[in-house]
Amino acid sequence: MMKDIFFSSASNNEKLDMLLKGSQRILLKASSVFPFDFFPDELTIDENKVNIIFHPFFFSKDVHSIMIEMIRDIEVETGPFLAVLKLVPDGYPGHALELRYLKRNDALKARRIIEGLMVARRHGIDPSKLDSPDFLKQIETLGKTSLTE
């Protein structure tokens, strides 16, 4: 019996280590462009979640963390230079989190990474167990849409 408790504890420790490793591997950091947004908002993507930090005023912030599994839809509206990234979390129908005034390339890359992570997770692939040097390229390729990119 003591042996069973030890092994289940060890597997939980291993799981925790993998989660911590995935949360520390930042795949993308981006922020909105200053002249268009006086208090630039931030986007951070790691293997497990997407963090959007809104800065409505000096020394204030509104933090939204969405687990990859909880993202129902992702959309990017692009212009010549800037873009809007929209995330719809599961459980918030019709309520998208919008991150405005991102650089166009940053928004498109964020969409590819998030979409790639969503596809990988839905097929049972745990990104934290992948240590390939081309990991980010592989995830981006997985998240590409053939019509637009």
Short description:
With 149 residues, this protein is an alpha+beta fold.
Report on the structure:
- With about 150 residues, this protein is α+β, with helices and mostly antiparallel strands.
- The chain has one domain (about 1-145): Roll (PH-domain like), CATH 2.30.29.30.
- Helix content is about 35%, strand content about 30%.
- A hairpin with a 7-residue loop joins β3 (about 50-55) and β4.
- α2 packs across α3 (about 135-145).
- The longest helix has 23 residues, at about 1-25.
- The chain is globular, with a radius of gyration of 17 Å.
- Residues about 1-10 have low confidence and may be disordered.
Please tag this protein with its features.
PH-domain like, three-stranded antiparallel β-sheet, four-stranded antiparallel β-sheet, globular, single chain, disordered N terminus, 34% helix, 3 helices, 149 residues, alpha+beta
